[in-house]
Amino acid sequence: MNVLVLGSGGREFTLAWKIAQSIHCSQLYVAPGNAGTDLFAENAELSVNDFAAIGDFVINNDIELVVVGPEDPLVKGIRDFFLADDQLKTVAFIGPGKDGAQLEGSKDFSKAFMERYDIPTAKAKTFTEDTVEEGLTYLENCNFPIVLKADGLAAGKGVIIAETLENAKESFRSMLVDGQFGEASKKVLIEEFLEGVELSVFVLTDGEDFVILPEAKDYKRIGEGDTGPNTGGMGAVSPVKFATPEFMEKVKSRVIEPTIKGLKSEGIDYRGFIFIGLMNVAGEPYVIEYNVRMGDPETQVVIPRIKNDFIELLVKAADGKLKGYTLETSPRFAATVVMVSGGYPGSYEKNKSIQGLADVTNGLVVHAGTKQEDYEVLTNGGRVLAVTGSGDTLEEALKMSYNNVSCIKWEDMYYRKDIGKDILRLQLD
Ligand code: AMP
Ligand code: GLY
Whose C-alpha in 9, 22, 58, 412 is 20 to 30 A from the C-alpha of 74? Predict the structure, then answer.
């Protein structure tokens, strides 16, 4: 089977890497891909939002399975574009249509959805340009910290946690009145702050049935000890000790099942990944957000733990045949450490030559922001590599990952040295 993966980051590298191992894989394309995907797949120069060019490529290359990595094309309706075309509508497709993608594309939609189906989440109220004054008054009666969320996609930056009323009012105005996040902040949610530990849970659904993939914890802040600004993710581990069978059972019955049923009852035929960002508040799961794709860097630790043939799993989801499917996961631990360009998540330089990649002999070096030029691999983004290790214990997995990180160098690189340490501390307690 010929397969196309859309995207160019570490998530897409890992999805493609797993697909390449399937006995069903003939020709594998990643569009646009990076220097790493070029090693085991063919990169295709396509923009993920150029649906017409992607459609032509799929037809011309006899692609039978399309996997969409990032949310943007899904929110913009790539699935709907495929369904509207006689030749493309039969292609197995992983990713929801515009209707389902609203779970991530509109926080106002997803909050109302959760309320409709009694899915536990933080209380929130939505305001617009016309209700700025009401919002400011509402803030006066809130407890702090408080969370402000832009309704639409804001490249992971649309959430502000305000510690004081003054900060909250200022941020609220700049989001709604000054258009801080453009179209995305035309609506703003004021949301109750949840105190707890975060967990990323992943589901693959065919619209009716679902499988729960291994859970993960990611490390979003740039600085050690979870300090400094948020990033796209500085590392991840899986499994996660505090995701006990008892907690995961609650996640299944209170969050996952009502989500799948809710989508169905709204007539949304959702075939793809759902990434549920959860807060564990004193043992109870609360949804912080839905994403309509896999997480990054969580994918780099979740996917390697899946034992099943990946194309088989994806095609079953796309074809509505997940009923009775058993996911087999490895009990081994996986850890990934993200190596970034100095300055990230602020401004940083690209085109630095990466040394030492060939010195890594075990584990998996996932390319996220790289490009090949002549015989050199160059940095081409903020998050450059995600170095995944595995082991019978989390310590072993982290050791492999950090050993491999120490082989790799470029001018002005940075990585966190404390990935997984909080969980290791929990294990000692
Ligand atoms: P999001 O863009 O929705 O993933 O939010 C970014 C981050 O903000 C999350 O990963 C949480 O760390 C934090 N966050 C979002 N909503 C809340 C909330 N209601 N309470 C506490 N933290 C939150
Ligand atoms: N790791 C968080 C995300 O992918 O959004």
Answer: 22
